[in-house]
Design goal:
The chain is built from four helices and six strands; from the N terminus they run E-H-E-E-H-E-H-E-E-H. By secondary structure, the protein is of the alpha/beta class. Strands 1, 2, 3, 4, 5 and 6 form a six-stranded parallel sheet that branches. It is globular, with a radius of gyration of 14 Å. It starts with a strand and ends with a helix.
Length: 151
């Protein structure tokens, strides 16, 4: 059965709000399981997910420790994400390098099929931002439905 995993990191709650709105949108289209976890709670068996969506805030132009540690562990364990659907979202204040860095890593290092563009929301998502997140979730769910393979 196809599954979507949404991983995120947050300090102020903005990225978490986005993750929940993306999940809500995905669940409207996608009749299967949509899991939401923080990066430090990520399941070890990522191979059971058809799509992995990753959310990052932008702090001082670098990925947070939790996200970097997660990516390093995947590389160390040689986790194969090649061909899985992937997407990135992020909240930001004045710049938005971190989501771009994360996208490049999952696209080039892990060879995921990246669903673009990245979803950016400035500061705390307002009503418009929540709707953008829900639409992003729907877009990913539609892609997964069209490309899913039985697991």
């Amino acid at each position: 059965m196809a599954k979507i995993l949404i991983l995120y990191h947050t300090r102020t709650g903005n990225t978490e709000i986005m993750a929940k709105a993306i999940a809500k949108g995905a669940r409207e289209i996608f009749p299967y399981e949509v899991d939401i976890k923080r990066f430090f709670e990520a399941p070890k068996d990522l191979d059971r997910y058809t799509a992995i969506i990753m959310g990052t805030p932008n702090y001082y132009h670098i990925l947070t420790h939790n996200i970097s540690e997660f990516l390093e562990e995947l590389a160390f364990r040689k986790v194969n994400l090649k061909g899985k659907n992937g997407a990135v979202f992020g909240s930001y204040g004045w710049s938005y390098e971190c989501p771009n860095i994360l996208l490049e890593i999952i696209k080039n290092k892990f060879e995921m099929n990246v669903i673009e563009p990245i979803l950016f929301v400035k500061y705390t998502p307002d009503e418009k931002g929540i709707k953008e997140c829900q639409e992003f979730g729907k877009k990913i769910a539609k892609t997964v439905k069209e490309t899913k393979k039985p697991l």
